[in-house]
Amino acid sequence: MARILAYTSPSRGDLYPVVPVLAELRARGHDIAVRTLASAVPTMQELGFDAAPVARQIESIAHDDYKAWNPSGAIKRSLRVFARRAEFEQADLSAALGEESPDAVLVDFNCWGAAAVAERAGIAWGRWCSYPLPLPSRDVPPFGPGLPPARGPLGRLRDRALSPVITGGFERVIVPQVNEVRTRQGLAPLSGITGIVTSAPLVLSMTAEPFEYPRSDWPSSVRLIGPCAWDPPAAPPPWLDQVGRPVVLVTTSSEYQDDGRLVQVALEALADEPFQVVATVPAGAGTFEVPANAHVAEALPHAAILRYAACAVTHGGMGATQKALAYGVPVCVVPFGRDQHEVARRVENAGAGVRLPKRRLRSGNAAGALRNAVTAAMARADGARAVAAAFEHAGNGPAGADAVEQTLLVT
Description:
Radius of gyration: 21 Å
Number of domains: 2
Largest sheet: 7 strands, parallel
CATH class of the largest domain: Alpha Beta
Strand content: 5-15%
Number of strands: 13
CATH superfamily of the largest domain: Glycogen Phosphorylase B
CATH topology of the largest domain: Rossmann fold
Helix content: 40-55%
CATH architecture of the largest domain: 3-Layer(aba) Sandwich
């Protein structure tokens, strides 16, 4: 049996999807060590993992992408955060390798410094990605703004014309920063985003086709294993069984994104509707006027709530959105930034829900717009159930464990 070290960014949205893979590996007899955000360490220890926090300097570098004016600017702000964290990740993972002596390392896709250290160490290593892989392909639109997939010759012409602008723009930001980290580790520079993905022998992508756009040119290192939806063990709230009417779950980001407006508009929009509204605000999102048919809390077990849900209203985070779809619950996505425009478009393209632009939350009829979007999303329940079936077929935790054993732990 092997000892496996997982190294994550200080984000629950990046940690939770890899937990089913690690739990399955532990069930198969492997030892698991984890480095992650400090507040999640006790939960990881309860699962039987040897867990410790990442360096405090890493966790102190917070996202500020909510200050950007457009999706491109938001992603570039996020990339700068990853670059700043990379400086401290290099020493942090180096120390962890010395302490744990693992046989294999799994690195969060957002941890550039840790990835360079793992590659330089000559140890078996792989990455996981909890959001749509920003991998250029002839079969999909350029990553970032959430463009709809190409339809016919004009659509393909659009993609060819925009790719140098959109993908090239990201490459001009991200590739020099990644190569600076790689140079410190004595690694050869990469020429583009594709190299960032393919530099690892294994990449676990936490999604599945057809929710993820099908491609004819997936690298052999990429395994689509499903969302691996996971919640920390928790008892459902005692009032849940007494609701007696369909639930609408509203989620905001686990990392501060100034998305509290989504909760307030949802509370107003659905106050007189025959639903129980349940909103979670894990990063804190202000104070709210809560109507009689609503509950607002920092954290509640989404899995328990989704069993009663008719719709989920999300900020477009990949974890929250795919978790709802894994339960066959249609989604109304209001993307705020990061990868969320891409997630929203995939929901729409899969016929599993609807996409509502964030600007509609500031309009004179914000409540009406969101209420109509929720109604439209619920009409797409068949699409959500089809996505749920595809996610289950992908295998999730066991599929990820198979990939790790077959790729990284072969002798």
